[in-house]
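Quick one, C-alpha cells below:
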C-alpha cells in the first residue's frame, strides 16, 4: 500500500505516498504519542501508559522506512523505533484539506423524510433480537443510522421496556422514576400524561446532559387516535439551513433555556442551543420542546426578531407532513428514539378505549458500544 516515506520539516513531519497516488502527512509528535508498542500502550487493555509530558518536546523523526506493510519510524532524541501498520495509518489519517461546512454529520448518519422512511421503518422482533446477534446488530445499527427503530413481539405487560434496554445497556433513572407511565391522568405533573396531542419534540431538554435515548413501549392502545410519529431533526435542521442560513446560525449559536418545575422538589434547568454543533461544526444535538422552553435571554436584542423567525420556521418544518413518519403503536410494541436527533409526537386521542404506554431513558454511548463490540466480534470471527 505504501510507496514512499519522505521526512520533512527537519524531522517534524513525514509524508507518506500510497499506491493510489495520494499522499498523507503526519507529525512526529503525533506519531510518537500514538505509538503502538507495549511501552506506550498496555498490551492488555490498549490504554496509553505515558503522558504527553513523557515525550521530549524536541521529538523528531530521525529515520523512517517502509518494511513490508508497515512504516518503521525512529524517534530522536529517545532513540526509539516504532512500527505502524499501513492499514492503521490509513484509518487514522488526519491530513485532509477543506474545513467542513457547519452542520455536517458523519458518514454513518443517514437523514430521512417521510418519502424515504414511511415504508421502511426499521424493526425487529424481540425474541429474534435476543436469540440472534445479527438481528440485534441490524436493529442497533438502524438506531445509529436513522435515530429510531421499532421493536415488535414484546410482552404487553408493565416493565417490558426494560427488556429493550437490557439488549444493549442500562436504563437512565430520573425524577420520573426508572420508567414512567404515559397515560391520561387527573392533575397530571406533565402534559404527556393527558390525552392532548403533543407537538413533535425531544424529551427533557432541561437536563444536562440530556437523556440520549428514549424507549416507549405500549401495553394497551385501543383509543381513537393516539398515533405516534417521528421526525428526523437532522433532516429538518438541514432544510432550515438550506433556506435560511442566518436563522440556522442563530439557532445553533445562541443558547436557549429549558426548565421543568412541574413536581415538588424538582427545578431542572439547562442552557443549550436548539441546534447544537460541535466545535468543528458537526451537528450533534437537537433540543426542541415547546412545553419546557424557558424565556430566551441569550440572544442579542438586535437578533431576537430573526431568532424568533428562525424558531417559527424550524417549528413549521418540523410540522411539515413531508418530514413525519407515523405509526400506531400496538400492545407489545415499543420504539426507541435517539433523543439528541429524532423528535417524537403524539396525536390527540379520545374514545372509550385505553392508551397505556411506558417510557424510559437510556444512554446512546452504551448502545453504540454494544453495537461496536458485536461488529468487532463478527469481524474477528470472519478473520
Ligand atoms: Fe416525549
Amino acid at each position: 500500500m505504501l510507496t514512499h516515506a519522505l521526512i520533512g520539516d527537519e524531522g517534524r513531519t513525514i509524508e507518506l505516498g500510497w499506491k493510489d497516488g495520494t499522499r498523507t502527512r503526519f507529525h512526529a509528535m503525533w506519531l510518537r504519542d500514538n505509538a503502538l508498542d507495549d511501552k506506550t500502550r498496555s498490551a492488555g487493555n490498549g490504554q496509553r501508559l505515558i503522558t504527553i509530558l513523557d515525550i521530549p518536546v524536541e521529538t523528531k523523526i530521525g529515520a523512517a522506512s517502509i518494511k513490508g506493510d508497515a512504516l518503521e519510524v525512529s524517534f530522536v532524541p529517545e532513540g526509539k523505533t516504532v512500527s505502524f501498520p499501513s492499514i492503521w495509518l490509513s484509518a487514522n489519517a488526519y491530513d485532509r484539506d477543506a474545513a467542513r461546512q457547519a452542520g455536517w454529520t458523519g458518514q454513518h448518519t443517514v437523514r430521512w423524510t417521510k418519502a424515504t422512511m414511511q415504508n421502511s421503518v426499521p424493526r425487529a422482533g424481540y425474541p429474534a433480537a435476543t436469540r440472534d446477534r445479527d438481528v440485534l446488530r441490524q436493529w442497533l445499527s438502524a438506531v445509529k443510522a436513522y435515530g429510531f427503530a421499532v421493536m415488535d413481539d414484546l410482552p404487553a405487560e408493565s416493565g417490558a421496556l426494560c427488556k429493550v434496554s437490557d439488549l444493549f445497556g442500562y436504563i437512565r433513572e430520573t425524577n420520573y422514576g426508572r420508567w414512567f407511565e404515559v397515560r391520561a391522568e387527573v392533575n397530571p405533573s406533565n402534559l404527556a400524561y393527558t390525552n392532548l396531542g403533543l407537538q413533535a419534540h425531544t424529551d427533557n431538554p432541561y437536563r444536562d446532559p440530556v437523556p440520549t435515548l428514549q424507549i416507549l413501549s405500549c401495553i394497551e392502545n385501543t383509543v381513537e387516535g393516539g398515533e405516534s410519529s417521528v421526525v428526523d431533526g437532522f433532516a429538518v435542521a438541514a432544510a432550515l439551513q438550506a433556506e435560511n442560513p442566518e436563522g440556522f446560525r442563530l439557532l445553533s449559536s445562541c443558547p436557549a433555556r429549558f426548565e421543568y418545575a412541574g413536581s415538588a422538589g424538582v427545578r431542572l434547568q439547562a442552557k443549550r442551543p436548539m441546534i447544537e454543533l460541535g466545535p468543528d461544526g458537526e451537528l450533534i444535538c437537537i433540543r426542541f420542546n415547546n412545553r419546557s422552553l424557558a424565556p430566551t435571554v441569550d440572544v442579542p436584542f438586535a437578533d431576537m426578531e430573526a431568532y424568533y423567525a428562525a424558531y417559527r420556521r424550524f417549528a413549521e418544518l418540523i410540522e411539515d407532513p413531508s418530514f413525519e413518519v407515523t405509526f400506531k403503536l400496538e400492545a407489545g410494541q415499543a420504539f426507541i428514539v435517539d433523543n439528541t436527533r429524532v423528535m417524537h409526537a403524539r396525536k390527540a386521542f379520545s374514545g372509550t378505549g385505553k392508551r397505556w404506554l411506558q417510557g424510559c431513558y437510556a444512554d446512546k454511548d452504551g448502545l453504540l458500544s454494544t453495537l461496536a463490540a458485536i461488529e468487532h466480534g463478527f469481524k474477528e470471527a470472519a478473520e
